[in-house]
Amino acid sequence: MNLPSEDTPANAPLTLAQARLLQLAAQGLLTTPRRAATPLALRDCIARMQLLQIDTISVVARSPYLVLFSRLGAYPQAWLDTALADGHLFETWAHEACFAPTDDVLLHRSYNQHARRHWSLLNGQAVQASQRAHLDSLLAHIGSKGPVKSSEFARQDGKTGNGWWDRKDEKRWLEALFASGELMVKRRDSFQRVYDLAHRVHPRLADAVLPEAAAVHRHFTEKAILALGITQARWVHDYFRQKPRLKDADLDVLVEQGVVQRVQVQGWTLPGYVHQQHAELLQTAQAGKLRATHTALLSPFDPLVWDRERASAMWGFDYRIECYTPEDKRTYGYFVLPILHKGALVGRLDAKAHRAQGAFEVKALFLEDGVKLSDAAVQAVAEAITRCADWHGTPEVLLGRTEPQAMGERLRSAGL
After folding, report:
1. Count helices and strands in the chain by DSSP H and E runs
2. Burial of residue 393 (number of CB atoms within 10 Å: 0-12, 13-18, 19+)
3. Angle, CA 388 vertex, CA 56 and CA 76 arms, to 5°
4. I need a surface site. Which of 27, 139, 178, 329 has the fewest CB within 10 A?
5. Sign of torsion, CA 72 73 76 78?
6. Contact of 372 with 407, CB cutoff 8 Å
7. Residue 159 — very low, low, confident or very high, per pLDDT cuts 50/70/90?
């Protein structure tokens, strides 16, 4: 990284473009990886983000694998599964269902037991209250027989099941015990959770003292600011889904203690916040010496864009995850990937990997309003799509409609 200019004032306001580059650097999306990915780099990537959201949709690679690919480049997806099975990561309810570094297991356990009001945890509490005998029987079974998957239990009601609202009893009981912390996910087999007793997954939990609520709240606040690189106070709470939404006054103590720095960003009516660990990065951004080189397709659940309000204010990118929207109300498509190009979100595409046919279908590709790409930028986008398709094992790219229409021909001319 270039060193900051010595004559740049420490309190110089950032331009919005500089703030964006700072956030990309913190998130690991500023520059194209120079080295091949390694298992350690994968774990470091998750530690940098603090959380890696889990989603089961598989029209392309499932979200956690795609988030890592956007930052690391090509890597074997089994590395993530191995990191979980080897105990470097654990699963928890946080932003939503997430992988998190095992060093943070006590923080998450404390928050989930004492403060979080997620629907899955509340549903688990209801099951625990009404069906405790069944839960205890299942715990005894796991204690004597070992880890289990829900698929090992046959349905007794003749139904086939259709989503979380129609789960078989054992799946609901397993999830209730996961919500209470009595079970943890030991590993995943073909993305299915394999549950085991919590103290066998992480022995330190057997006699651990959980941190107090105030300490947990402060840690998550700091970690969110660190992961985001730069943020307004009102965006901090969403990262770990804390309550309540923060105001500037809520961060006064951290500012006074020098843990975070309050900065001005041109065009913002509210201040931004940068963690002290990014002090040098902030100075480099203020000096105008951060350079974005990376072009990538992002997951809909990438932390860069998972907060719609933040994505709009930071990136001018109004992004709704439309896979949960009825088909007739979708604007762009079912599983739409934002296109990042050298410090800007320039477009989005609706994709599907046809693995049996070896084809990566781009159903539709849209440039953002007002975006005009140079030939070099079109080439970079075409190469990003090709890299993503190759990593999926679907090297044939099928390009559908584009807006503007001429973008399709330009991409084909660029080798897509």
Report:
1. 16, 12
2. exposed
3. 65
4. 329
5. positive
6. no
7. low
168 Cβ neighbours under 8 A, 6+ residues apart: 150, 153, 155, 156, 157, 159, 161
Rg over CA atoms, the chain:
22
pLDDT computed for residue 160 by the predictor: 53
Token pair listed for 229: 């690189």
pLDDT number for residue 8: 57
What is the dihedral angle through the alpha carbons of 289, 225, 307, 339, rounded to the nearest 10 degrees? 30
How far is residue 193 from each of residues 108, 142, 322, measured CA to CA in Å?
19, 14, 26
Instruction: Give residue for tokens 């044939």.
Output: 396
The 3-class SS string of 76-130 reads CCHHHHHHHHCCCEEEEECCCEEEEEHHHHHHHHHHHHHCCCCHHHHHHHHHHHH
Token pair listed for 221: 């606040």
Beta strands in 132-215 (DSSP E): 183-189, 192-197
pLDDT tens across 10-46, in order? 678 999 999 999 999 999 999 999 999 999 999 999 9
- 338-374 b/e with 16+ CB inside 10 Å = b? bbbbbbbbbbbbbbbbeeeeebbbbbbbbbbeebebe
User: At residue 2, does pLDDT exceed 50?
Assistant: no
Q: Which two tokens stand for residue 363?
A: 């159903």
Can you give the length of the chain in residues? Answer: 416
Per-residue pLDDT, 157: 56
Q: Taking Cα atoms as reference points, which of 40, 81, 63 lies closest to residue 194?
A: 81
322: tokens are 């439309």
